[in-house]
Amino acid sequence: xxxxxxxxxxxxxxxxxxxxxxxxxxxxxxxxxxxxxxxxxxxxxxxxxxxxxxxxxxxxxxxxxxxxxxxxxxxxxxxxxxxxxxxxxxxxxxxxxxxxxxxxxxxxxxxxxxxxxxxxxxxxxxxxxxxxxxxxxxxxxxxxxxxxxxxxxxxxxxxxxxxxxxxxxxxxxxxxxxxxxxxxxxxxxxxxxxxxxxxxxxxxxxxxxxxxxxxxxxxxxxxxxxxxxxxxxxxxxxxxxxxxxxxxxxxxxxxxxxxxxxxxxxxxxxxxxxxxxxxxxxxxxxxxxxxxxxxxxxxxxxxxxxxxx
Length: 309
Known about the structure:
RNA Polymerase Alpha Subunit, Chain A, domain 2
């Protein structure tokens, strides 16, 4: 019997290649398929449009020139946004402000519609407003006016016993304010911030005291004033007997002692003794340095003197 030797070819038959691909390497194929599906899902999900409802967003208005809002419209609105999930996830919603453009409205009672056509927000590209609640607000628009009103100083506390508040000077006495016409006309006076007088024995000068307007829609154009408050000790009158009298040259007079009535700050007048006071005929009383210029002579008894030669 004869035998014939054959050489194996290096080529792989197509059916053998397919068998290796689908049978021997099926695990790798499955893994690749799972990864592909995952990437496809992630990309399409991030790009797919989504809707988010924001927490209340501050509402501001873009108004016509020289016009203000006289009523109190809502301060916040609820906004729904639409965009890709990736864009929505990147947003910092805490800093968002809704600005409604109502610059085309005239003064009076108006209804302003709120929609994506007239409400502006700083949103990423591809994110848009789909809904705003409420859909409209009522605005009472008024012309802005300016007016001068008097200033009243507010105090708290009192000076210590024996002292009292005297004159109060405010510079300027009137300040300028502006705001919606009805609100400005209703303001009768402006008030300063509260000044404490508790324990205050001396006069005080405050160069910058803030002006406070109780209506938050009215703005002071002169935000500060200067205030001076005079505080003085209470005045009292006292009669002192046995006060010596003499001439300017030191010569004797008749009577040699008199009773005087003095007026001045209580602490000074009550501390004077007869020997602290002298009557100098034709010159007036001689007082200690602490009382000079602060205590006045009201009368002497007797009121006439004879100069001894």
